[in-house]
Structures are given as structure tokens and as C-alpha cells.
Design goal:
The structure is a homodimer.
Chain A lengths: L1 H7 L3 H13 L2 H10 L7 E7 L5 H14 L4 E7 L6 H11 L8 E7 L6 H15 L4 E7 L3 H7 L4 E6 L4 H5 L3 H6 L2 E4 L7 H18 L9 E3 L8 H18 L1 H29 L2 H8 L5 H8 L3 H4 L1
Parallel strand pairs in A: 1-4, 1-5, 2-3, 2-4, 5-6, 6-7
Helix pairs in contact in A: 1-2, 1-3, 2-3, 2-6, 4-11, 6-7, 6-12
């Protein structure tokens, strides 16, 4: 198959096409994955997440530069809220990142969040596999840190960077628990702003609580400062990423996380497939009865899934 | 069944227990829904959403007071990020709301987000049905406006209020497109802050674009100001809710949205049930093969779902 071979040869156009197929659920995408899968598992997948307004895109942009300076080829998968009303702001970020787009060692790709529940992590992981097969050493996955979909996305990473920011208050820092627990590197961005010390102390407390709760943990997450808009903090973050990668390699954690990710991917694909079966099963007349309140949803489900549980 | 009868009699303890059962997937919850379902469809479900830091809890609190003053019984379903690290801030909001907890005309309930993808909107809707059956005139569903789960939750409402706030910048206002499109009432909270005018103009532009994109729309969303911490803006928001309710009643939109919600609930339940089947089908040895990269995820799925599509 031409496209899969071109992906393995690192051809950008082929990679972009394969990711589009996978994002759209085009069966040609699955064929590409089947061909390239044995050649994947090498790229270091780095998740970047945090609340809206933390400057994640700018930080990602800075980090791409830092990793390139160390000779790594870098892919970026940006999980994009894709709001038609705020296209300006988001486009601005992408344009800022565009200074890397002439660099053949950098490939940037947005994944929409328009898909069904659970579909986001599936297509993000597929995109990571394609970039991995293309030979990128690092794949950065950038997403906003709220919502179950986003946790699922971040759980795909070998190394997760949590980005905080001064002055947004407790509620805003409240990225979901699952993400905080997954974080291996913490960064307070916009550290030249008022409130930096308070935010830093807040993160220190949180890391202290985590350490107490998990005394057996063998990685101690660093807490770093950055002013990504001014390029400050890039080397320290790149060092921390390299340190975590070395830690993963020495403990077998790298292969372990890659394997768990593939396992989760099978379950995500299975849920997607079954959701399609569900839509087909729930015929119109039954849904009409529920809509008219002649039948309650739970009784409807009993009719729809009769016998299905036994098939497992 | 005692609990269902007690729910229909408006007993708080029974309602709380039923919601817990439904949240936990306890089959007794489904039995309650079957009994109460014919008596539901009366409550006005009001969604409140916006970015973190917009003051949604304070606004909800204010709105509860305003609706109570108009003689309505009000239920609140707060979709809670439930972060262990920010329990303080969130608890603070709940405590602030606690001034209503001695009022038998108010019932406040948090729903966790710990469930599986898609489970959040399912258990939120179940909670709305219970509050509806208990005789609450209005049910407010409060959630943060990012993530597919949250869109699903907001799509459950008859009337959706989008809350913005000055000074967070474009990116932070970028609640998801689906939510912006669903919004029927827009509120700029913390309107005494610097940047109010800029945020207001941003929302005006957004509403203007939306109007151009949908000339056939028969509801023109109002844009209101509020300082919820000082109780400002409550009457205007309550008026707008009443106006939208009257609009829904006059166009048949109220029953239409209720029906679509039940239809969506059947599909959500079906997805949950099928996800359980999926986990049972994906046996350990097949997942082990994928984890060890001996088998790719797409080929694994073909083996797992063989013949299933035909069952529909």
C-alpha cells in the first residue's frame, strides 16, 4: 500500500492524509495502521495540558524549538476546541507556531473535538502512531485540561506536563484530578505575572499532598517556572523531559506505558464500533415511543439489549 | 415501590437516595425511573455553563434566590470536577449555596465526573428526572463549559445560559462551539471588573455572527450583565428565563426538547451497556497480544466484533 510506505518513509503529505482518514473513520486509515503498527513504539509521547488561558500553545511552540535545538524531530498534535466564534484566537496560536512549518523536522496537526464521546482519544492516539511511524522522535499532544475526553488524551502520554498560571484562582487551576495525578512535570507559565508566588505555593502544596499519598512513587515531579512568550524556561523543561525519559527507560516504564496505551486503544475502538451498533439497533419507532413518554428509557434499553450481555 | 412513591411525594431523602443509585448504576435506580417516568416532563431544565472562573456557582446561587422569590421550587444539579486537590474551593461554593439548604423549596445535588465517558450526561439527566418527579418547577444544571461531556450535559436543557467574564481573554471564553450555539441567554458576570466593555463587545460580535448564520432562528438571545457576588442582575436573568420559557411554550419547543432529551438518554444508556459488553468481549489474551505489539488494534477489533454489525 503506497500511503503506508510513504508514511514509513516520513513523507509529510502521506502522514497528513493518513491522519485525516483516521480522524474521519475512513477504513483506509485502519489499513495504514495495520501496515505501520509493527514499526511504531519508538516516539516519546509528551502530553501538555492545563486550564484555558495558561498559554499552552505558546509553551508548546517554545518547547518545539528547544527539542529541535537538541536535534530531535518533533510532531505536534493539537487538540483544538475548534470554535467557529473564536477561530481568531486559536488561529493566532497556530500562526505563531507556523514559524516551525517550514522546518521539515516539525509536523503540526490539529485534531477536532467534534467527534463522538471517546472518539477524541482514539483519533489522537492514531495520529500519534502515524507520527511515530514517520520517525518523529518526540510527539507533543497539547490539550485543554478539563473534561473526561481530555483526561483520556493525556493518559496516552509517556510524559505529561501540567501547565498552571498565576492569578486564575483555585477554581481555574482545578484541572481534573486524573490529570493532576498523571502529571510528571509541573510548570507555572507566565511566571512574570503578579501572583506567581501564590500559585507556586499552591502547586508545591499539591505536590506535597501527592507525595504523602503515594510514598512508593519513584519519580519526584519537578516544579518549573516559565515565561513562554519570552522563551524563558525552555531548557529546564527540555531537561526535565529528558530526565523523565531516562527514568522511564531505566524502570521499563516506557514500554509499559506504550503497551497500556495500545490496550486502551482497543477498548476505545470497541466502544466506537459498539456505539454504531447501538444506533442501528435503536430503531425509530422505539425512540418515538420514548420521545412521547409512552416508554421509559430503562425499559427501552432492556428491549434493545436483550441477550447481548450473554454474548460476551 | 416505596422509594418511587416517596420521590413522587417530593420527599428529599428518597430523591437523594434515588439519585445516588442512578449515579452508581445500581439497578434499583432504574426501577425508580420506570415508576416515575410517566409523571415527568414538567420541570423547566435550565443549563448554566461557562469557562472556569466565570463565577457560575455564585450566579446559580443568586438565581436560586430569584426563582424562589417568584414562588418556584428549585432543584440544582451541580456537575462537580471533584478534584481532591481543589476540594477547598469547590466546597466553599457549596457552603455558600448552603444558605438555601434549610429551604424545603430548594434541593442541591452534586454529580461527580468520575464516571466513564458519556456517563456524565446520562446520570445528570437521571437526576433531572428525579427532581422533575419530585415536583420542582425549575431544575438548574451547572457545569463547566469545556469538553464533550459538558456539551452533552448542556444539550439536556430547555434553556441554556452561557456565562462569560471580563479579562480572561479570547482563549478562555472559547467554551465549545456546540455550547455557544446552544445558548439562549448570555450573561457577562463580574461586570464591575476592568474589561467588561471589551468582553461585552466580543459577545455582541459572536451573537451577530450567529444571527447572520441562522436567519431563520425565532429566538433572539439576550445579552445581560451581572455581578453575582453582589446580587446584581438576578431579576433580569429570571425575566429572560421566563421569556424563553414562554417562547418555548408558544412554539411547542418545550415538549420537543423534552422528547429529544429522552431519545438521547436511550442512546446514552445503550452506549454504556455496550461498553460493558465491550470490556467483557475484549479478553485478556487478545489485549496482551496488542500490548506486546504482536497484533494491531484495528485487526483486534475485527476479531472482536465479527458479525456484530449484522445483528442490528
Amino acid at each position: 500500500m503506497g500511503i503506508a510506505a510513504d508514511v514509513l518513509a516520513g513523507r509529510i503529505a502521506a502522514g497528513a492524509r493518513a491522519i485525516t482518514w483516521l480522524d474521519d473513520g475512513d477504513p483506509r486509515g485502519a489499513e495504514v495502521i495495520k501496515r505501520i503498527f509493527p514499526h511504531t513504539g519508538r516516539a516519546h509521547v509528551i502530553g501538555i495540558t492545563g486550564p484555558p488561558g495558561a498559554g499552552k500553545s505558546t509553551l508548546t511552540n517554545m518547547l518545539v524549538g528547544a527539542l529541535r535545538a537538541r536535534g530531535q524531530r518533533v510532531g505536534v498534535v493539537a487538540v483544538d476546541p475548534s470554535s467557529p466564534f473564536t477561530g481568531g484566537a486559536i488561529l493566532g496560536d497556530r500562526v505563531r507556531m507556523a514559524r516551525h512549518t517550514l522546518d521539515p523536522g516539525v509536523f503540526i496537526r490539529s485534531i477536532g473535538t467534534r467527534g463522538a464521546a471517546g472518539g477524541l482519544s482514539r483519533s489522537t492516539h492514531d495520529a500519534c502512531l502515524v507520527l511515530d511511524a514517520m520517525g518523529f522522535d518526540a510527539v507533543i499532544v497539547e490539550t485543554v485540561g478539563v473534561g473526561q475526553d481530555e483526561i483520556d488524551v493525556v493518559n496516552l502520554a509517556h510524559t505529561t506536563i501540567i501547565v498552571g498560571v498565576p492569578g486564575l484562582g483555585d477554581e481555574v487551576q482545578a484541572v481534573k484530578a486524573g490529570i493532576l495525578e498523571a502529571g510528571e512535570i509541573f510548570v507555572v507559565n507566565k511566571a512574570d505575572r503578579d501572583g506567581y508566588e501564590a500559585t507556586r505555593r499552591q502547586f508545591e502544596l499539591m505536590l506535597h499532598l501527592r507525595e504523602q499519598a503515594r510514598p512508593e512513587e519513584d519519580w519526584s515531579p519537578p516544579l518549573l517556572r516559565a515565561v513562554a512568550s519570552a522563551g524563558e524556561g525552555a531548557a529546564e523543561i527540555a531537561d526535565a523531559i529528558a530526565a523523565h525519559r531516562a527514568h522511564l527507560d531505566s524502570t521499563g516504564g516506557f514500554a509499559l506505558r506504550s503497551g497500556l496505551r495500545e490496550r486502551e486503544q482497543v477498548l476505545a475502538l470497541l466502544r466506537e464500533r459498539l456505539a454504531r451498533v447501538a444506533r442501528a439497533r435503536a430503531g425509530d419507532s422505539l425512540l418515538d415511543d420514548v420521545e412521547a413518554r409512552r416508554l421509559d428509557p430503562y425499559s427501552a434499553i432492556e428491549r434493545l439489549t436483550g441477550g447481548l450481555d450473554q454474548e460476551g
